[in-house]
Design brief:
The protein is an alpha/beta fold. 42% of the residues lie in helices and 18% in strands. It has eleven helices and twelve strands. The chain is globular, with a radius of gyration of 29 Å.
């Protein structure tokens, strides 16, 4: 083949190749994966409201952390009265929420009922545990409440620590607790508080009054003032906004106060000067951890207990009172905490 003929063949082949490439169908791009749908978490507060400076507020803080850190879609509904519980749960359920968190012992029945109505929704309830009606009955978490997790706290343990400090700090030998409704979590606080105080001073007088409301600060203040008139120089507020009234009484009368559920030095600044500490239940941490477990599929039905052993409860920092609390009192609190952790100390609470 001549040189000119060879050039023509090569030119033809190159042209043909270009034509084939131009005519080839364009590659179809792989479809983009749809963005993962954010888990929807709804919080139903108790009647104290989301800004109660303690219990409900702490639960909502846990949801807010999950919104920020985990990217969940979170919302709360406030219950104004007991009859709101079921309809508030229904609202979240009908709006397609994946997890519903209910706040407080009083919501136990409503949560159990709705958890059975909506078996595909994860439920977490704070301060209420479900147990067999009698010995030999099946575990409800394994039968009809397989989608429910109870977030419980050893309030008697942190109450014991608060009582230890109160008795050590008291000059009058009289302390008080202004309490909300007489329900197990509140009773555990009070029993622990009184027994912790008696362990320091067997002769101490520990006043207490249960008030059938968590939303009556005026009554709480009235009771607190009455206890102060009886010689109390330390007031433990154990009842949401009702207990807050007791703390206000302590502040106004120049007495010492102990907050509850959260570090109330931060959430209730009006009384911070009087607060020697707060008996904290780390509700926010428990709520966040439950949401995180639900998000990764590891949340199991049953009880998740926060106690001194796992750091789920404890006294808040002493803040402005740190220099006013003697090393002896600090040592007594530390010894009580150590004893509760290793089991050598009992709070004296029995269910």
């Amino acid at each position: 083949m001549s040189r000119s003929a060879l050039v023509k063949v090569i030119t033809f082949l190159i042209a043909a190749s270009i034509l084939l490439v131009a005519c080839a169908p364009a590659a179809t791009p792989a479809p983009a994966k749809p963005a993962a749908k954010a888990m929807k978490v709804g919080l139903v507060t108790d009647v104290g409201g989301v800004n109660d400076k303690s219990f409900n507020q702490s639960a909502w803080a846990g949801v807010q952390k999950a919104i920020q850190d985990l990217g969940v879609d979170g919302k709360f509904i406030e219950s104004k009265q007991v009859t709101d519980y079921e309809k508030n749960i229904d609202q979240f359920a009908t709006e397609g929420y994946d997890m519903i968190i209910t706040v407080g012992f009083l919501m136990g029945d409503a949560t159990a009922k709705k958890a059975q109505e909506y078996p595909n929704i994860k439920f977490a309830i704070i301060d209420f545990g479900y147990f067999p009606a009698k010995a030999g009955d099946p575990d409800p978490y394994k039968t009809n409440l397989t989608n429910v997790t109870s977030l419980l706290f050893s309030e008697d343990q942190v109450g014991y620590l608060a009582g230890t400090l109160a008795a050590c700090m008291s000059k009058s030998g009289v302390i008080g607790s202004v309490s909300g409704m007489e329900i197990p979590p509140v009773v555990r606080f009070v029993v622990g508080y009184q027994n912790g105080a008696k362990a320091v001073n067997p002769d101490i007088k520990a006043l207490n009054q249960y008030i059938p409301s968590f939303t009556d600060p005026a009554k709480g203040k009235e009771v607190g003032l009455s206890m102060i008139d009886q010689g109390a120089d330390v007031i433990f507020g154990v009842g949401g906004n009702t207990g807050n009234g007791g703390l206000l009484a302590a502040k106004e009368k120049g007495k010492m106060g102990i907050g509850v559920d959260v570090d109330q030095y931060l959430t209730y600044p009006e009384v911070k000067d009087a607060l020697i500490t707060s008996a904290m239940k780390n509700v926010d941490v428990a709520v966040f951890d439950a949401i995180k477990a639900a998000a990764d599929g590891s949340l199991e039905a049953g009880i998740r207990l926060s106690n001194v052993q796992n750091g789920g409860i404890g006294l808040a920092p002493f803040h402005d009172w740190d220099s006013k609390i003697s090393q002896d009192c600090k040592d007594k609190v530390a010894a009580a905490e150590k004893g509760l952790k290793d089991g050598s100390i009992s709070t004296g609470y029995t269910p």
